[in-house]
Write a structure and sequence with these properties.
CATH class of the largest domain: Alpha Beta
Distance between the termini: 40 Å
CATH superfamily of the largest domain: HAD superfamily/HAD-like
CATH topology of the largest domain: Rossmann fold
Shape: elongated
Structural class: alpha+beta
Radius of gyration: 33 Å
Number of helices: 25
Strand content: 15-25%
Amino acid sequence: MWCPSCAWLVGEQLKRAKGVVNAEVSFIQGQANIAFDPEITNHKLLKKRVRSLGYKATLPDEKPHDEEESFYTRLLIGGVMVLHDMIVGAGIYAREIFGWATPESQPLVDFFQVMMLVTSIPVLLLLGLPILRAGFASLLRGQPNLHTLITIGTFSAFGLSVYHLVIGRGGLYFDTATMLIFLVSVGRWLEMQAHKSSAKAVMKLLEQIPNTATLVTSEADREVSVTELKPGMRLRVRPGARFPVDGLLAAGEGDVDESLLTGEPKPVSRKEGDAVKAGTINLDGGFEVIATAVGESTTAGQIGRLLHEAQWARSPLERLVDKLAAWMTPAALALATIAFLIWNYLAGFEQGLLVALSVLLIACPCALGLATPLTLWLSLERAAESGAILRSAASLERLAKVVRVFFDKTGTLTQLPMKVQTVVSKRLSVNSDKAFLQTIASVENESEHPLAKAIVEYAKLQNIELIKPTSFKALPALGVVAQLPITNYQSPIHIGSERLMSAGGLEMPEDIRQQAEAWKEAGLVVVYAGWEGRVAGAVGLGESIRAEAKETLSQLQSRGLELAVLTGDETRAGERWQNFLGIPVYAALTPDEKIKRIAENAAMVGDGINDGPALAASTVGLAMNHGTDVARTAADIVLMRDDLRIIPWLFDLSREAMKRVRQNLGWAVVYNLVGVGLAMAGLLQPVFAAFAMVASSIFVTSNAMRMNKFPLLKN
């Protein structure tokens, strides 16, 4: 495909095919995503339909012809032929202008004119055939596009030249026809380079996953294909090798380079029991790992899927520009027709045709179609390189409009993991603090909440054996309710906030209340546990602010953004954090209450189950990668990098991207308005109109490519 209007045409024609449910065509990827009924149509028929439009089509598993190398060769040959036509044409024009024409030189001129015809034919065949074929196909289907305009322009110039050559008088425009095809082809080659660059993040990610792995067996280690791996298999990963799967370390200790996923080059220490990710590098440890996810289920696979999906999710601005570009081609044909009629009446057929040709060329909507998608896609890849995965270009567009940012506190502004500082129990149905810990840790082991994970970790350090609950229910912003298969517990076990204890009808002993109040005064988070009508005990957990949190908040405020914290913590704890952070903190909020606080053009940053609704309701939701699946699924942006400073960086990226888009759109609109005006006034020769058309596309592409220079987030 040669421009976004080509992608639009192919998509529309595929949607009209029998048996096709939906079809999306990406100009940036050069790919089509088609949903169809296999009982009505098939790959072969769909490929045939694409070819009927003048384009090539192959399946993903088919080895495509090396189009770039072939195209480059044809471009070089065509360039030599065009140069010949331009030199000969310039000589002939100079002969007329400077009065060098003599009867003796006419045979030589006739010879060179024939040679211009001879050398123009290979250019039309080598470079122009795909364009001309697609142009005729779109014209016959009544859906004109860029190819249609170029086809009409080329054949007008070529046909008029042949006619004048035959009758022996009139100007020749072979050089205009060949230069038009050549310049459009040069623009196409530059776009191919831009598209190749725009795919680098996905390719880099996929290429780093090993094709083989060392499987540990009872007999001996053996090399196997990663396609044979399944969760639960034990693998050996030697120093310097990449992990082929997501998994848990079963043996070994050392440093791991996770920069492929997080964008952060600093090595991280990993030991037995820690999680590792596919594609990351074992720097110096002798590791054995138990696979937990393989292939597309790995973190790297999911990131690749998200990046792939982002290419198909068109932003509102892209859709608007596509509609405008679709109308511009018929408008160009109409304007060219009007120009021809006017100038044919004023100055004759030949001048009318030349003016119409200039209008057709200058009005091509290629620059307009390129203005938005390439900029946004390069920005998505830049974000991925710094450790942020955006689900769509629309997320980037919306982020640039955000004026306020809301933060969750626990696990977002505070450092994980939290630590259990102290425990108190009433020894009701249990006979020791250890039994109390076993009870609450067994229940919390089913939860993904950071507080629950801290309690479970504390219990494991005490060598406490955990019990599998018979039932479990999470109540966002309140806690959990569960039952254990132990005869001591006839009623459900409630673990969570004081509000949950009250809602469950559990009596609060005065000594536990007093102890909890003292913990809150000291800045601890309190988790209560109760059953059989009474609160049986409480756990005090401490959390510390992230090292980069205050710097991040300051950077966001310097960018003119309003900030606030939404938390389920009790009011007293919220007041303490408000004084410490210096921004509003809204405490004791349920998930529904968090949603009510979310205003228009607001972003939400969170990591927990109770953040999911707020993330989904916000203009842009940003989820920490260590958070729950609910949070990551609800978010528009997943922060793979464990560094809050990526948030102000993302705002800078989004604003820079939208600035480039506005520049490109502004240039494309002004170029078309001014260019069409000059062409209709007869002030622009066809060859210069062709130059201007290609120059405009090159300007837009080059401006978009500047996003590759946008600085990555530094450590």
